[in-house]
Amino acid sequence: MNENYKGLIEDKQNEILDYLKNVDVFEGQFQYNDFNDQCYKEMYLNNSQDNIKSVSDLKEKIPQLSDTCKKCAQYYPRQRNKSIKGLDVQFGKVLEESLLDFFNNKLKIKAVRADNQNRKYPDCMLLNTDKGILAYFEVKFHGAPFVYANRNINRLCYEGSATLDLDKVTKQIEIIESDLDRPTFYFHWIDYPCLKGIFFETSEQVKEYIYQSGMEFDRKEREGDYNLIHKVGYTKKIYSPLLQMGTFEEFIQIIKDMKKNGVKKY
C-alpha cells in the first residue's frame, strides 16, 4: 500500500530535509509512518467521491488523528512566508529532481526535463527506450493543508487542498491540446501531517473540472506575489478532487503499459 511513495521518501528524505534545514517545517514532514498508512487507507483507499468521509468519522477510525488535527490547526493558519515566488520555484525544482531520479534509477523509467525553451510546456516528460516521448507531466507539491477549506470552499481539508493555479493551468491546457500529441498528467505530491502520497490526474480531467467548477477561491495577495511592480504570483485557485485522482502505483503501471503497447490517450 503506497509502496512506491514510501520508497521515494526513504530514498530522498535526507536530501530534501537537508535543503530545508533552515526552514521551519511541521513535525513529520517528508516522513512516512504507520499513522500515515492508516490515513492513506481511510482517507483515500476506503473513501468515495459520492460519500466523502467527514473528519469526525475519520477521527473515530484513526485514533491519532485528533491530536494531529489540533497541531495542524495551530500551525498552518500562520503565514509561514510571504509566498515568495522564486523560493517556491526553487524548492519545486528540488522535488522534481528527486522524482526524476527516482524514475530513472529506481523504477528504470527514463524521465527528463521537458522543453526549457518554452516555459509554458509541462515541466517533465517520460521517454521510451528509443527516446520517443511517452507522456508529459507537471509536479505540484502540497505541504500545507487548506485548514479553512470547509469555511471558504465548502470542502474538507484533506480532500480539497490540492490546488492548481486557474489562469496558469487553463493556458497550459490550451497549449497541450494545440501543440502536444502526447498525454499529460498532473502529479499532486501531497505531504500533509495526515495524508501523504503522490496522486495524479490527466489534463482532460483538469479541463473538465475547470469547466464544471470555475474559480473556487481567490486568495489575498501577498508581498511575494510581486516582483518590483509586476505580479508574478497566481491567486485564483481551483482544488482538484482527491478521490477522482489515481495513485502513484497506477501511474507507473500506465507508463509500463505504454512502453510495452504504445502511447494511449488518457
Question: What does this 3D model show about the protein?
Answer:
It is a single chain. With 266 residues, the protein is α+β, with helices and mostly antiparallel strands. Helix content is 42%, strand content 18%. The chain has nine helices and eleven strands. It has helices spanning 3-19, 34-45, 55-61, 65-75, 85-105, 149-153, 166-179, 203-213, 248-261; strands at residues 110-113, 124-127, 133-142, 163-165, 184-191, 196-202, 217-218, 226-227, 230-231, 236-239, 246-247. The strands form three sheets. A six-stranded mixed beta sheet has the order 1-2-3-5-6-11. It has a three-stranded antiparallel beta sheet with strand order 4-10-7. Helix 1 packs across helix 5 and helix 7 (166-179) packs across helix 8. The protein is globular.
Overall form: globular
Q: Kindly report the oligomeric state of this protein.
A: single chain
Give the low-pLDDT segments: 224-233
Assign a percent range to the helix content: 40-55%
Order of helices and strands: HHHHHEEEHEHEEHEEEEEH
Number of strands: 11
Report the total helices.
9
Described by strand count, sense and barrel closure, the largest sheet is: 6 strands, mixed
Strand content: 15-25%
As a whole number of angstroms, the C-alpha radius of gyration is 18 Å
What is the overall pLDDT average? 88
**What structural class do helix, strand and pairing data support?**
alpha+beta
Distance between the termini: 24 Å
- Main-sheet strand order equals 1-2-3-5-6-11
Brief summary:
The protein has 9 helices and 11 strands. With 266 residues, the chain is of the alpha+beta class.
